[in-house]
Amino acid sequence: MVVIETRLDPANSLDIDGYHGLALMNFVHSIKRLNILATGGATHYPYDKNKRPSALDFAVYGGLSNTCLSTYSSVDLDSDHLPVHIELAAKRLSVFAQAGLRRRILPSNLNISKFQAYLNQRVLLNTEINSGEDIEDAIDVFNSMANSVFL
């Protein structure tokens, strides 16, 4: 799963962030194995009263049922930006059956605490993404890091 910060508001599509946001959204929708997860509301409330709130944050994911994912915003930062929290409900977790995919996401004997600590140390969560190719690259980097735990 990749979390992206870019403008998704079509009304702001004339600025560069709006253009990138719409291009990313169209790219994700064109690839049937990817989905978008968002709060459904604005995540950016500009200090400038002349600007409109917009949705800046969303996640791109694939291979998981959307019934096991949920998202919400919270007022945790002292800024004009609301962080987006994404929760994975492991009890409802299922992997879509696709050729070449294993049915299990993680090995049953995995130490989750060590796995999480390893990823927290190595995965950069503030990767700038401006194109569909950047999404693919970020997914590849994350998968490479996650799989390197098992080597």
From TrEMBL:
Family matches, as InterPro entries: Endo/exonu/phosph_ase_sf
SUPFAM superfamilies: DNase I-like
Name listed for the protein in its UniProt record: GH11572
Source species of the chain: Drosophila grimshawi (Hawaiian fruit fly)
